[in-house]
Amino acid sequence: MNPFENRSLALSGPATDALPVVPDDGTDLPHVAVGLYVETGGTLGFVTVTGQVRTVSVADFSILPVGVRRVRATGTTATGIHALVLA
Q1: How many whole angstroms separate alpha carbon 45 and alpha carbon 55?
Q2: What confidence tens digit (pLDDT) does each residue in 30-50 have?
Q3: Sheet holding 35-40, edge to edge
Q4: Measured between alpha carbons, how far is 23 from 45 in angstroms, rounded to an integer?
Q5: Burial class for 16, CB neighbours closer than 10 Å (0-12, 13-18, 19+)
Q6: What predicted TM-score, i.e. pTM, was given to this entire model?
Q7: Which whole-number Å values give the CA distances from 6 to 11, 26, 31, in the listed order?
Q8: Model pLDDT, residue 15
Q9: Sign (positive/negative) of CA torsion 81, 61, 53, 16?
Q10: DSSP states of 15-52 as a string?
Q11: Which domain of life is it from (predicted)?
């Protein structure tokens, strides 16, 4: 049984996929992320869904619950980044 089969997608619910991210200063993610998961901590440069450029420090195995349209190469040292999406 698929518990997602008859549910509508919601920002308050779980993501439907986790897509690997290659940081890039000029290219948006294929789907706006409802959050990011980071395997190896460091700094994370990104552009929010509202267009703001941010850089934050994250620990290993972090979840950053913010809408993200782009993960920037500039300012990013964290690795193993995944975009949590509603696709």
Answers
A1: 4
A2: 999 999 999 999 999 999 999
A3: 17-20, 79-85, 35-40, 62-64
A4: 9
A5: middle
A6: 0.88
A7: 16, 37, 22
A8: 87
A9: positive
A10: -SEEEE----SS---SS-BSEEEEEE-EEEEEEETTS-
A11: Bacteria
Kindly give the parts of the chain with pLDDT less than 50.
none
**CA 85, CA 35: separation in Å to the nearest integer?**
7
Question: Rounded to an integer, what distance in angstroms lies between the CA atom of residue 27 and that of residue 11?
Answer: 23
Q: What is the pLDDT of residue 35?
A: 95
Matching residue, tokens 């290219």 = 27
Among the listed residues 20, 16, 19, 31, the one whose alpha carbon sits nearest the alpha carbon of residue 70: 31
